[in-house]
Specification:
Blueprint: E1 2-6, E2 9-18, E3 24-28, E4 38-42, E5 44-45, E6 51-52, E7 55-58, E8 63-68, H1 88-98, H2 102-109, E9 120-125, E10 131-134, E11 139-142, E12 146-148, H3 159-162, H4 166-177, H5 183-192, E13 203-211, E14 216-221, E15 229-232, H6 233-237, E16 242-245, H7 254-261, H8 269-296, H9 303-325, H10 328-331, H11 343-347, H12 350-369, H13 376-398
Antiparallel strand pairs: 1-2, 1-12, 2-13, 3-4, 3-16, 4-7, 5-6, 7-8, 8-9, 9-10, 10-11, 13-14, 14-15
Helix pairs in contact: 8-9, 8-13, 12-13
């Protein structure tokens, strides 16, 4: 994101980089006298709480933007004595409904344990151009005329690291060449800082340029900067609470259609059920063959295969759990890498393990089926596992988990 203050005009530009398929902009009137109406944009549903705001602006000209970041490992502060944040959506919206200045935002947030947002950094900007950066453990007020922020916590990030992020560096470089608040220049800023990843084209889902002086917002959808829609906050609030589904506001977008057509367990119940089945199968196989190996290791042939499936079942169960929990595996380049080194960086090679093992496993499976050394159920379980591995390999190919070049 960026903010530019020139004279009495402040523009806040935000790029929402995400894989969500239902982004929207919505307007909420002032909940009671003495509060402010506001407009919000976002695309992530936070359970029963509805859509979580990603950026927004209120009638007083106060704006905010939210960016994902790694959890800071320095300057950690214990905030357990402060109020808990039980509903992120209400908390974020209440700030814009009740505050008109950075000082009021700082006072509001200071009451709460804002380390609740361990993987987010927020920036609030008032009409004058003054801003507040909210990190998990730190609140910092600034008043630079021009400011660029990306996916990092400024208090613990040096310039060398920040400049490694292309979108941040491009924004800073463009502001060194020229500073303007015209719609064309702000569009160029958003364009220069947008992301379009190689994998299925996902990246910047929505760009929002908020004019804090005039109460205007210009939207650009799915990193297409040839089309835009503008809303006047005052006019929209006069219509009452309402929302717009952003994809329906713009012409068809081929890259976005690819994103819509991309099937993963999180958006396809059949795939979700299949991964659940795999988890159960691999867990049961690991336990069953462990017991069977202990009982028959001295008498049955190919008992080493049973021993092999004990750790293999555990590994595959863990990987199925990873696919359930970490949706970014499906959208990131392969092999997947966390922003800090974790076991997920190692688990990214499990699909290659299965690919390398499938032919030998099928060969052994064929030999075992021709003998009477194993029980019929053990043969059935072995065959079912190998068939499941083949289906998973097909899915891994579809999800690009083997696309390392």
């Amino acid at each position: 994101m960026y903010k530019i203050t020139l004279g009495d005009k402040t523009i806040v530009g935000t790029n929402f980089d995400a894989y969500y398929t239902s982004p929207r902009i919505w307007f909420e009137i002032a909940p009671k006298p003495g509060t402010y109406g506001a407009g919000f944009s976002g695309g992530r549903i936070s359970g029963v709480n509805g859509f979580a705001p990603q950026s927004g602006m209120n009638e007083a000209g106060l704006s905010f933007s939210r960016l994902a970041t790694a959890t800071p490992q320095k300057n950690i502060v214990d905030m357990r004595h402060k109020k808990n944040i039980s509903n992120e959506c209400s908390y974020l919206k209440d700030i814009l409904h009740t505050c008109k200045s950075i000082e009021e935002v700082r006072k509001y947030i200071s009451q709460y344990d804002h380390s609740f947002f361990k993987e987010d950094v927020f920036i609030y900007i008032e009409k004058s151009g003054k801003y507040l950066i909210v990190e998990p453990y730190t609140l910092t007020i600034g008043n630079d005329a021009n400011y660029v922020l990306s996916n990092f916590c400024p208090s613990v990030t040096d310039a060398a690291y920040a400049n490694k992020l292309d979108r941040y560096r491009k924004g800073v470089e463009l502001l060194k060449i020229k500073v303007d608040t015209t719609s064309e220049f702000c569009k160029a800023m958003s364009d220069s800082m947008h992301v379009c990843r190689k994998k299925i084209g996902d990246g910047t889902l929505l760009s929002s340029n908020w004019n804090l002086k005039d109460g205007l917002v210009a939207l650009y959808f799915y990193h297409d900067y040839t089309h835009s829609i503008q809303y006047n906050l005052k006019e929209e609030l006069a219509k009452g609470d309402h929302f717009f589904e952003i994809p329906k506001l713009f012409p068809p977008n081929a890259e976005f259609q690819r994103l819509l057509n991309y099937r993963i367990p999180q958006n396809t119940p059949a795939l979700e059920f299949f991964l659940l089945f795999c988890s159960g199968l691999f867990s049961f196989t690991s336990l069953f063959f462990l017991v069977s190996f202990i009982r028959t290791r001295k008498s049955a042939s190919h008992s080493n295969i049973k021993a092999l499936f004990v750790p293999l079942g555990i590994i595959m169960t863990f990987y199925m759990f990873s696919l359930f929990r970490n949706v970014m595996i499906f959208y990131s380049p392969s092999p997947y890498k966390d922003h800090i080194f974790t076991i997920q960086n190692i688990a990214a090679y499990i699909p290659f393990l299965i690919l390398a093992a499938i032919i030998p496993l099928c060969f052994v499976n064929r030999r075992i089926l021709k003998t009477n050394a194993w029980s019929n159920f053990s043969k059935f379980l072995l065959t079912t596992n190998n068939l499941t591995f083949i289906l998973l390999i097909c899915l891994f190919c579809y999800w690009g988990l083997y696309s390392i070049f």
